[in-house]
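REQUEST ID: PR-0412
SUBMITTED BY: lab tech R.K.
PRIORITY: routine
TASK: structure prediction, single protein chain
INPUT:
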Amino acid sequence: MTGVRMMEMVKIGLIGVIGILLAVPLKSYKAEFGTYIAIAVCLVILGYALQYFSGILSAIEQLRGYLQDNYSYLTVLLKAVGATYACEFCAGICKDAGYGGIAGQVEMIGKLYILLTGMPVLMALLESIQSIAG
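STATUS: complete
OUTPUT:
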């Protein structure tokens, strides 16, 4: 990891800590203010995360070149990763707001989606094993 990226990670960590230090006292004053600050900090950090997508997209294009028109597995992988990040982000906000039950449901639906998304890969693997085994 380069020095610049390391400093960005430190900056993002500091944003998170400062957000918590602001949210905790406000939460005792008025609970919804703490939640609003937590959501705002999450969105700021998400904005930083979006900056990395250009590097990720160029790596995906390189992977597509290696796969030679057979990139359905890459699509499955990207769907699973996207669902994981989206569910984790939403569940974190729900937990911060004090709704752990809803967060658990969001995480469960995310896991079921990932399982469903991965089924074609599992079926292709089983078909390959069956054809080899005879």
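NOTES: The chain has two domains: 1-51, 52-134.
REVIEWED BY: pending
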